[in-house]
Amino acid sequence: MSEINERYDRATALKRAGEIEAAVEELEAIVADFPDHVLSHSTLANCLQSLERGDEAVIHAERVTQLDPQDRFAWTQLAVICQCCGRTEESDEAMARARQLAATANQDGNVDDRRG
Prior knowledge:
mainly alpha, single chain, globular, 6 helices, about 120 residues, Serine Threonine Protein Phosphatase 5, Tetratricopeptide repeat, about 80% helix
């Protein structure tokens, strides 16, 4: 697993340095080799959105929700990306799912506060 972590760390370093295209290349290579790596799909969606490659960003954001359907942050990310792409109905559906997961977590007393 250290290989994937090293590659992901390189990609995020490129992103932080403003080398978004290079980060995308690295992240695309990671998801080609490790198609279930949630963090790479999520970061790739973010990078692609920043490059105004919305349709590609949606694909990776959707993949995150498939890999971790109980992650309300993933659904929120999908909603935001869809909204930016003008996919209002898909955005509304994703946000509704995020809210549903948040409400369920609050009822169960299982609050996942990622701002920590």
